[in-house]
Specification:
The strands form eight sheets. The protein has a four-stranded antiparallel beta sheet, with no helix packed on it. A four-stranded antiparallel beta sheet has the order 5-6-7-8, with no helix packed on it. By secondary structure, it is mainly beta. The longest helix is centred in the middle third of the chain and has 12 residues. The radius of gyration is 25 Å and the shape is globular. A hairpin with a 3-residue loop joins β10 and β11. It has a domain of 164 residues. The C terminus is likely disordered. It is built from seven helices and 30 strands. Belongs to the WD repeat TRM82 family. Keywords: Nucleus, Repeat, tRNA processing, WD repeat. InterPro entries: Trm82, WD40/YVTN_repeat-like_dom_sf, WD40_repeat_dom_sf, WD40_rpt. Pathway: tRNA modification; N(7)-methylguanine-tRNA biosynthesis.
């Protein structure tokens, strides 16, 4: 079984360097590959083993003995997978997030990947972006906070120096002291409190003291719910540029806050979702924001005015087009009619929103919105020009059928590449497409996607690239690639036959605790 590529990022010519070549960054498990599209080959590869510091031969404090136990433990440590990937606006730096909560910064010098820093966050980052100034990173974590980090961290703090931001620490205690709760069985009467007391009595010692962070970070804003996505927007107001941070959380909120240094000021909210919001996408050149999550509709907002422009149904389009693989989401009878569309609506989870280039009928350049639904082998396509007229009439969606569910999308020139969950040996993990409006007046609004064979030929080397540790289990890959549906709030956490405090029928909802 081969590993699919879970993250993509494209690097191309910039206004400062218009003659630079196109490159494609692809993350495959813990490895990061850099492909030169002009040369058609992999020019650089990074793996966590390249970042591990060498263990000295002799230990000065240990009488010259080599720390064999430490070396063996380090060799057996499981490498962390890359879960987020982005580039700076000048495309000279790459920022990657691994599932061990580490933010890694790479430089692209002479077309080579070189890691220049790594910082471990207290909570797992869920969204990351490099600001247009090319010096600041904004990072949102699952705990609900958004931080700003310098792209190039300052030197480590001196021993004993006070860090700029520190984590909460427990009191330092010499040795291990037994934990003695103040409550007893004589003072606790309810069943729930007794269970809590038993858990406290089972605790044998205090937790270890947490070390303060040794790098600079600033808290910009926070949510009381699990953060899911972060977007950064710039808008001209009265001739001046104003910056905004748009955040989404698991509790159906979309918040618009001012950009640094006034990010503590909330401008407003875009409210209307009834399920979690997993993805945000700003349409370039407009004040339109597209959001999607655990519902069967996409929401189109005028985010500057905090108003809902309209919704676009995904479920009806999927059922009418009979997407391959949708049999798990809905049941069709012998006549092809829908028997259980309600369950289909409940199972939809938007896993990706991207804006890609397309060609209009008059050969002018336009943009189109791509929508991915988790585990569905296809992409929904809609011209961004149709988002302006969603009021009163819902625009039609075009489906790009794929052999496997899409994972990530990146734009290269006038084309875009899609990484697929193709795990069988010999299957293409990355494919390239070109998009244009379908010809003819009857096809107004429909899109036509064709394979870009020339670009796919340049991608052949990365499709056939073998990964030495590709023998991963299917469940481990599913956990890495598919996690959006887990944001849906579960029910039935109370004991069978006992009603919850908020639900007389015994189906009180309980929100999962955010992961570290």
């Amino acid at each position: 079984m081969q590993r699919p590529y879970q993250c993509l990022a494209a690097i191309g010519p910039t206004p400062r360097n218009p003659t630079s070549n196109f490159h494609l960054l692809a993350a495959c498990g813990p490895r990061l590959l850099l492909l030169s599209l002009d040369e058609g080959g992999i020019v650089s590869e990074w793996s966590p083993a390249d970042a591990v510091a060498e263990v000295p031969e002799d230990d000065e404090d240990g009488g010259g003995e080599r720390p064999k136990k430490k070396q063996k433990t380090a060799a057996q440590a499981k490498p962390a997978n890359i879960i987020k990937l982005t580039t700076s606006c000048n495309e000279q730096y790459v920022v990657a997030v691994t599932d061990d909560k580490c933010v890694r910064v790479f430089s692209l010098v002479d077309g080579k990947l070189r890691e220049i820093s790594q910082r471990c966050m207290p909570k797992r980052p869920c969204a990351i972006q490099v600001l247009p100034d090319n010096t600041t990173i904004i990072c949102g974590d699952k705990f609900g906070d958004v931080y700003s980090l310098p792209l190039h961290p300052e030197p480590a703090l001196e021993a004993g120096a006070e860090p700029s931001v520190a984590t909460e620490t427990t009191p330092e205690i010499k040795g291990k002291q037994a934990f003695k709760p103040s409550a007893t069985n004589l003072t606790v009467h309810t069943q729930r409190n007794r269970k809590s007391l038993e858990a406290q009595m089972a605790q044998k010692a205090f937790s270890a003291k947490k070390e303060p962070l040794k790098f600079d970070r600033k808290v910009l804003l926070g949510h009381v719910s699990m953060l899911t996505d972060v977007a950064y927007a710039i808008r001209n107001v009265d001739g001046a540029e104003r910056r905004y941070i748009i955040t989404a959380d698991r509790d159906e909120h979309i918040r618009i806050s001012r950009g640094p240094p006034q990010s503590h000021i909330i401008e407003g909210y875009c409210l209307g979702h009834k399920e979690f919001v997993s993805k945000l996408c700003i349409v370039p050149g407009t004040d339109l924001l597209v959001s999607g999550g655990g519902e069967s509709e996409l929401y189109v907002w005028d985010w500057a005015a905090f108003t809902l422009k309209g919704t676009i149904s995904l479920c009806d389009a999927a059922l009418s087009m009979r997407v391959p693989g949708m049999n798990e989401l809905s049941k069709l009878d012998s006549n092809g009619s829908v028997q259980d569309s309600i369950s289909a609506k409940k199972d939809i989870a938007v896993s990706g929103l991207w804006v890609v280039p397309c060609q209009a009928q008059d050969d002018t350049k336009e943009a189109a919105l791509l929508v991915a639904v988790e585990r569905v082998p296809g992409l929904y396509v809609l011209p961004t020009s149709k988002l302006h007229v969603v009021d009163g009439k819902e625009p039609g969606l075009t489906l790009l059928n794929l052999d496997h569910p899409p994972i990530d999308v990146a734009c290269i020139g006038d084309s875009f590449v899609v990484t697929l969950d193709a795990r069988e040996e010999g299957q293409d993990r990355i494919r390239a497409f070109k998009m244009r409006h379908a010809p003819g007046p009857t096809q107004a609004g429909s899109m036509e996607c064709t394979r870009d064979e020339e670009l796919e030929e340049k991608l052949r080397c990365i499709n056939t690239h073998a990964v030495t540790d590709s023998g991963a289990e299917a469940k481990a890959l599913d956990d890495l690639l598919y996690g959006v549906a887990n944001l849906r709030k579960r029910r039935g956490w109370v004991e069978p036959g006992k009603a919850g405090d908020d639900d007389p029928d015994g189906e009180a909802g309980a929100e999962d605790v955010a992961e570290d």
